[in-house]
Amino acid sequence: MSKQGPACCSPLTGEPLDAERAADLARMFKALGEPVRLRLLSLIASHEGGEACVCELTGVFDLTGPTISHHLKVLRAAGLIRGDRRGTWIYYRVEPERLRQASALLDLQPAS
Amino acid sequence: MSKQGPACCSPLTGEPLDAERAADLARMFKALGEPVRLRLLSLIASHEGGEACVCELTGVFDLTGPTISHHLKVLRAAGLIRGDRRGTWIYYRVEPERLRQASALLDLQPAS
DNA sequence: TCCTTGTTTCGACGACTGTCGAGACAGAGG
DNA sequence: CCTCTGTCTCGACAGTCGTCGAAACAAGGA
């Protein structure tokens, strides 16, 4: 379902964002606009194999389990990560397409 | 000048963000994480000449002047735009370097 | 079966944010 | 000088967000 039309990647310099697209993109940026979530995403993205389990993420911060779980849920709702359970542990990995969408929007000089 | 230092543009896949850098980047993404601000930035970036005055931005939304001014202030504090007064009107333009920084962070496959 | 460990959901609290109206400041022109 | 227009600051209010403790759910092992 995530087939992206040409409009998905047009940069800011192209034409003004309409309200609907702005709302979707803002949801993603809002998820990124929190230091803990940004670090969580970076931890997952840079982890060996491209995925990390919650148990490895919790110890990095001085935060309780529920708080980490909450932030992971926000990142999941924004479409930035995806998690699946394998046995006891749940492993999270990034959604590259979604990140590319954000990166392209902010790229003022698209690859020509 | 199109080549940046290694630290400023290292993508998420490189190494985990430290708390300080995450805080600065999160400030910028938080500014982008609001539909009105995202549309304001897009209006400025896509405007003829690369700059737009507040009077042209206010009419687009069903919001009062103070509210638009507040959002512009947040974008300014995040380093995303810059405004200078010329006579009666104040013109805003984007800060390309800052946008490039964000775009590069989210780019999972940097130009190799 | 019960117990232990990993993860999420629920309910609550303080802090922050978006919005407004009223007023202040800046510049242009009588 | 005064006035008008454009923009910002201030103070206040409702709504949202990050955080926690307690409890629930899921899977594995005694």
From TrEMBL, chains A, B:
SMART domains: HTH_ARSR
Keywords per UniProt: DNA-binding, Transcription, Transcription regulation
InterPro entries tied to this protein: ArsR-like_HTH (IPR011991), HTH_ArsR_DNA-bd_dom (IPR001845), HTH_MetalResp_TranReg (IPR051081), WH-like_DNA-bd_sf (IPR036388), WH_DNA-bd_sf (IPR036390)
Pfam family, one: HTH_5
Domain HTH arsR-type, chain residue ranges per copy: 17-112
Transmembrane segments: none
Coiled coil regions, renumbered to chain: none
Protein name: Metalloregulator ArsR/SmtB family transcription factor
